[in-house]
Amino acid sequence: MTTPALVIDHAVKTYANGFTALNDVSFTVAAGEFFGLLGPNGAGKTTLISAMAGLSRLTSGQIAVNGHDVRRDAYAARMSLGVVPQELVFDPFFSVREALQFQSGYFGIKNNDAWIDEIITRLGLADKADTNTRELSGGMKRRVMVAQALVHRPPVIVLDEPTAGVDVELRQSLWQFIESLNRQGHTIILTTHYLEEAQSLCSRIAMMKHGRLVALDSTANLLKSDTGLRLALTLDNRLPESLHRCLLSSDGDQHTLKLADYGELAFVLQALKFDGINIKSMSLLETDLEDVFLRLTSDHAEGAA
Ligand SMILES: Nc1ncnc2c1ncn2[C@@H]1O[C@H](COP(=O)(O)OP(=O)(O)OP(=O)(O)O)[C@@H](O)[C@H]1O
């Protein structure tokens, strides 16, 4: 059997102030998967990634990357993992190439110039290779973060919100590159708040909420678990009481309702007509990952802590 890319085994993390950010989390990611780790702000994703990278220590439980325990076999585990962190952090004195050479040295890798050149080219950084990192735009800095995570050719790559604040063109080229790494056999673990990205890229997804795992399944099964339609309405008056049971969210005069089927649409239209409320705009959408995510992770969700 192939060694799993990642094994999280009953991970618990309680911070010094007594707050438990990971509450008995267990799951396994197989080698070669494109895996999504999703959850609202504060769910514990970054805490889990820090523990995977050996940057913070679990209170109890174990994590193994590519078969290497992150504590007992820290060096091998760290060599197996490339993390693209959420925050852009650089040494302001280095050019792009120097930053990558420095990172190579940190991992004890010599004669890495051919690979550094390749990642520079493939990430569209060739024009900027000798530019100081502090002079780069945010999007370019993000590419350098990805390059830094790849310098030691890790089999497992973790991307923590890699497209936050990144323009559409860079997002697309970044995903093409990441998908090509996945085709070459690299395991990709992605956290993102762009659920449409997770839906199109990830074959399996874990969802976390308040430090616990609330879903772990293939993307296809998660989508199947939430049939129905989403109706987005802008109204010229308040939503009738009779429709509150279908309400997913409201923002001013905009409301999103969950309908079981097209038949319920007639009921909604009748209720609005009955109360003399006019529709300013309306759109009907098939269920997507966002519905599943909201159902499982919003504070109104069943079992909310
Ligand atoms: N050093 C710390 N001490 C105490 N609590 C912390 C510490 N670091 C994080 N937390 C808390 O742990 C919880 C989980 O934080 P974490 O950053 O892991 O969430 P996240 O899922 O990555 O969120 P986001 O999507 O916003 O990045 C949060 O409530 C956070 O405030």
TrEMBL record:
The keyword Cytoplasm does not apply. The keyword Isomerase does not apply. InterPro entries: AAA+_ATPase, ABC_transporter-like_ATP-bd, ABC_transporter-like_CS, ABC_transporter_ATP-binding, P-loop_NTPase. SUPFAM superfamilies: P-loop containing nucleoside triphosphate hydrolases. Gene3D superfamilies: P-loop containing nucleotide triphosphate hydrolases. Residues 6-235 form the ABC transporter domain. Transmembrane segments: none annotated. CDD domains: ABC_subfamily_A. Pfam families: ABC_tran. Keywords: ATP-binding, Cell membrane, Membrane, Nodulation, Nucleotide-binding, Transport. GO terms for molecular function: ATP binding; ATP hydrolysis activity. It comes from the Bacteria. PANTHER family: ABC TRANSPORTER ATP-BINDING PROTEIN, ABC TRANSPORTER ATP-BINDING PROTEIN NATA. Belongs to the ABC transporter superfamily. This is ABC transporter ATP-binding protein.
